[in-house]
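Record type: monomer structure entry
Structure origin: computed from sequence
Chain ID: A
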Amino acid sequence: MLLQINTSQWFYKVYIACSFLKKIIFTTNKSKRYIYHSLNQVQLMGVGSLTVVLATSFSLGMIFTFQVAKELSSLGIQQLVGSVLMITFVRELSPVLTAVIITGRIGSAFTAEIATMKVTEQIDVLYILNIDPFYYLVKPRIFACMLMLPILNILSLATCIASGIVVASILYEISPSIFLTASCCSSIDLLYSSIKSIVFGIIIGIISCAWGLTVTGGSKNVGKSTTSSVVTILLVIFIVDFFLSFIMFYSSNSLLNT
């Protein structure tokens, strides 16, 4: 099965994920314990993921530039390379690429860690100590995803552009000034890219934690739940990305026409 769980279990996990979203919107907790755990998760997600995000972005930036510049140069319109690549990087490639990397590295880790605590009955100990697992485990992780994914997205974008400039100037003799000045991206595109990253961060945090807390059985189900979590996160990200792109496309056109 695609999600390695039956339909009723999957919908139950979705229900728990929706309840987490409701709690995020309508509840607050500013205790020192919550702040401490949030900062730990921010360090784990941000600093720990920086190297792999930058390395992947640099490689894909070079690959996309090589392929796009080759085709446009054969048509004699190499001056548009910067514009095409900047739009691609800002609107789609950078936020989606960063979300996919974080899903594979952090989302799976969140699910596996919480699921292991669940099957070893550590979650029950939290209830005995009168500690809500949502505020102790879930909310700090969701907060870290919401905060750090837009930052990683901006760094990924800058890395993609830098590697694109290097390939364009060395292989196709397109100067950096032409590469950058030909771009038709605006501050609205950067804003939309950041909004996408925040939404993707919420999706990663909520689904990974919900799939971890709802695992049942023994250690075998920890792996199944982790796989299911990653697959579900990626599917939701791609579906939500389509609708966000659709909405942002028409809203940006409306702003330009006013």
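Annotation 1: The radius of gyration is 21 Å.
Annotation 2: Residues 32-74 form the longest helix (43 residues).
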